[in-house]
Amino acid sequence: MGASLKPVRVVLVSPLYGGNVGSVCRAMMNMGLSDLVIAAPRDDFNTFDAVKWAYAARSIWDAHREYPTLAEAIADCHHVTGTSARDGLYRQVRCTPREWAPDFLSHAAAGPVALVMGPENNGLSNEDLALCTSLIRIPSTEAYPSLNLSHALMVCAYELYVASGAGDVAREAVPAATSEMRERMFAQWRSALLEIGFMESDKADHMMMAMRRIFSRGTLSEVDVRILLGVARQARWCATHGATPPPTNGE
Amino acid sequence: MGASLKPVRVVLVSPLYGGNVGSVCRAMMNMGLSDLVIAAPRDDFNTFDAVKWAYAARSIWDAHREYPTLAEAIADCHHVTGTSARDGLYRQVRCTPREWAPDFLSHAAAGPVALVMGPENNGLSNEDLALCTSLIRIPSTEAYPSLNLSHALMVCAYELYVASGAGDVAREAVPAATSEMRERMFAQWRSALLEIGFMESDKADHMMMAMRRIFSRGTLSEVDVRILLGVARQARWCATHGATPPPTNGE
């Protein structure tokens, strides 16, 4: 049921702010990623902030590993994607996260792969970029192209989660009403609208076309149709018996 | 050149944390949105944090408007989308941000539309949801379905930005090398590999097929081919003249 996200490693190179790294943990857990590595950590990194902003994703922070260099952090990976917001030398050939995600996951099927993000102020250095086998750039406005670190990770992780197909299972199935159910409902409504005196019988066809249009703007679910059937039924009962308690069941 | 994002209003209902709202401002500006409204603001809202986290998107914070109720915040909108992470009554019929974005933008072409997000702790109330004409849910893991407010906004804003086509223009065109350029390069490489003694002439055809495979793993740009031409040229020069300064120009 879809590609596995387990071999996907998120590598943060020398992040500045604990809050951002904590937010990255949360976004990772939201999107089914779990393997966090920090390369070339700074001495003044605020661990307290990281824990605080990770909220319920504390487990990802607790399990994270650290390496002195990016090269060591990705030594066992056979595909490495860097992220870059800047134009310039070595940064020309890039794809969007949407183009990238399915391809990246097909590499992940063969072993560990890494998504690498640079420090908040400067992004990845040319030395870091040289270690990457592919490069992505998140689309953004010219007015403000620089995304927050955890926002950038969220976009990439979201694209991976969607591409993995994992999100599909989470969607509950609301069964759409069948044509037979819809027609039964429209028949009830026609009778009801006649019986409550809303329309004359010579206008009924015309008016029912309008009702069909209104109720066909979106897909009606089975529940919707059952509700609408109930409305018509009660209207008909009321037209014959006056406004008294509804019949308990049966059409 | 794509759908306009101008009529898109982001409405935050009673947000708790200034930092989140500031981050929302930044994500909005990253993704070309500008109209921020806060409905039913709290008395203890931390404006200082909002400004701090907005960074360069301060202009969006400064231009934001406030209304006592959600109903007033969206009074002039003819399409209103709510976001919900929870299952439950009134929350059954939802689409994903990807399904939603193009449809939402087509509504935006006719006037103001709103994307509504609830407070960080509880999300939108049933009363708020009743005011929405459509509902989206961001795919996420069962282990941790609750996204940070600014992360949720980022995913929706990113989908809108991509659907608007605005991101397409931002991608620089790296012209792929033409077949003629590639063939010129392979011819140079063939000569070079022979002249430096890398291969015998009876093995050249076979070896050049391997070289073609290697250089065709990805699309070669014009710049790539120019570099590879230069390598072959210099190798040939070296084979004849020894390792001395390269020729200044010309093939």
Mind sketching the topology for me?
The structure is a homodimer of 251-residue chains.
Chain A: E1 8-13, H1 18-30, E2 35-39, H2 47-54, H3 58-62, E3 65-67, H4 70-73, E4 79-83, H5 97-108, E5 113-117, H6 126-130, E6 134-136, H7 149-164, H8 166-170, H9 179-195, H10 204-215, H11 222-241
Parallel strand pairs in A: 1-2, 1-5, 2-3, 4-5, 4-6
Model description:
The structure is a homodimer of 251-residue chains. Chain A folds into two domains: 8-170, Alpha/beta knot (3-Layer(aba) Sandwich); 179-241, no CATH class. In chain A, α9 packs across α10. Chain A starts with 7 loop residues before the first strand and ends in a 10-residue tail after the last helix. Chain A is elongated. Chain A has helices spanning 18-30, 47-54, 58-62, 70-73, 97-108, 126-130, 149-164, 166-170, 179-195, 204-215, 222-241, and strands at 8-13, 35-39, 65-67, 79-83, 113-117, 134-136. Chain A has 251 residues and is α/β, with parallel strands linked by helices. Chain A has eleven helices and six strands.
